[in-house]
Amino acid sequence: MRQLTGKRVLVVEDEPIVAMCLEDILTDLGCEVVGPAYSLPQGLAQAEDGRIDAAILDVNLGPDTSLALADALAARAVPIVFATGYGHTLGPTAVAAEVLSKPYTAAEINDALVRALQGG
Amino acid sequence: MQVTDRITAGDFRLIADSAPVPMWVTDLNRRRSFVNKAYVGFVGGDYADATALDWRTIIHPEDAARITAESTAGEASLGTFTLEARYRRADGEWRWLQSVSQPRWGSGGEHDGFIGVAHDVTERHEAEASLRQSAESLRLAIEGAGMATWEADLRTARGRWSPNRFDLLGYPRTDDHSGSVDDWLARVHPDDEGIARDAVARCFGQGEPYNIDYRIRRPDGIRWLQSHGSRIDYRDGRPSRFVGVSFDITERKTAEARQQLLIDELNHRVKNMLAIVQGIAHQTLKPDVDPLAARAAFEGRLAALAAAHNLLTDQHWSPVPMRRVIEETIAPHGRPQAFRLAGPDLLVAPKTAVSIALAIHELATNAVKYGALSVAQGSVAVDWSTNAGEGEQRLRMEWRERGGPSVAAPARRGFGTRMIERGLAAELNGTVSVTFAAEGVRCVVDAPLPAEGRG
């Protein structure tokens, strides 16, 4: 469970309570949380600066989706984990990513991040 | 027994009178020189009346002109001719008679007149009319149900289309109602052409009936059709035919797609709600919190979430009035008269309403436990306002407690405060501050006014 120690993980999630929960889980896993960002513009801005080792992206962000952000991160070879309430279907995206179905457990987040980081 | 080669006039009369159908003999001057008993029975009166009767007086008015012309032509042809018309029988009933007339020749080969025999064909006419009527009723029923029909010769793949089939496929109607399988295929959407061609090939080849849903491209747009087709084979050697019906199912397909969309959306909302509940559980059920207190807090938070969702469901997930969000959230906490709400009519987006409800719930819970609502004389003022007409629209909301016990800032900020300060701030994209002032807890929200709240 300590494989993630010190990893900087960008969190983009438009539901504040879910974001807080995710933050706590990531902190418990030893990660450093970047964000959380609550919208696509905030997420794009957070992705701009600083070092990011991985990102957990909610697919639906209010009126937007995080697919544009995923493309930007993929271009920088940042491993991505999608979190979605729509089961395991994502729609059209060229980005190879782990997909987590909401609600998720700490163990699922750990495993998805580890796989994403290995794949990257 | 010897049969003579000439029968007598008496024999002839006997034969003619025993025949069940009217018979007559006319001279060149068209006068009846003989009629049989069945003839007399049909026209009425006695023999003399019957021979004297001009048949034009008992013919149906609608048939008169046609029959006059046809009989004149028939007589002039000096050959056998057949007429079919309605005549009034002695009892007044109109009967369809088919008469066959053939010329008579004298012993010297000269033309003497005609011999006629008539058959009552009323029943055949009625059966035909009834068949025409039921075919027409069937056609009306089929077209009334929005169904278009076709039938084609299997050898040419061409045949007759019902008029509404031309409309259905977006072709102009033609006078001969002629349409082909290729005309139909030309309208089928390229993505569904395989389905259509395959179904028709199997129907033509193996006689397999089919029932397919497919799209067509019509000048006015894409439509969904359903078609049932089958092959009819005849035992008498007639060529097989290809027949069927089609109808428009665009509305059903659209409704199905909408239903799927709603199911997906509902699924998404349920999953999202479970994620929120999980988040609340995670924040509430910490190892260092007393289990009973944690359970009470958890239940309170779920109740606040449920109340907010009741409100949203009532409003069909459209923006809700700010006042109602606050009222419904504070209802389970303390005395209603301890609250004073003041602010303009303002609509907030559904998602924002949930965040505001959860924040108000946390403030109210804290006020009941430790703050102004823990004592009889305490009160809470909730004010909100917008700076209408002063550049960027902003929302300002304040929760201010008075008359409670002296407030001490907590040793650490719990989930409630954290959720208010961070969750609501994130939701509103503004700032939220909670102050534990000695005279009472104060919470100030300052945020750009969400688009839904603007006039």
Automatic annotation (TrEMBL), chain A:
InterPro entries: Bact_response_regulator, CheY-like_superfamily, Sig_transdc_resp-reg_receiver. This is Response regulator receiver domain-containing protein. SMART domains: REC (SM00448). The keyword DNA-binding does not apply. Coiled coil: none annotated. PROSITE patterns: RESPONSE_REGULATORY. Keywords: Phosphoprotein. Residues 8-117 form the Response regulatory domain. It comes from Sphingomonas guangdongensis. The modification 4-aspartylphosphate is found at D58.
UniProtKB/TrEMBL annotation, chain B:
The keyword Protein biosynthesis does not apply. PROSITE patterns: PAC. Its EC number is 2.7.13.3. SMART domains: HWE_HK, PAC, PAS. GO terms for molecular function: ATP binding; photoreceptor activity; protein histidine kinase activity. Keywords: ATP-binding, Chromophore, Flavoprotein, FMN, Kinase, Nucleotide-binding, Phosphoprotein, Photoreceptor protein, Receptor, Repeat, Sensory transduction, Transferase, Virulence. It catalyses: ATP + protein L-histidine = ADP + protein N-phospho-L-histidine. Residues 81-133, 210-261 form the PAC domain. Pfam families: HWE_HK, PAS_3. It is an enzyme of class 2 (transferase). Gene3D superfamilies: 2.10.70.100, Histidine kinase-like ATPase, C-terminal domain, PAS domain. It comes from the Bacteria. This is histidine kinase. It comes from Sphingomonas guangdongensis.
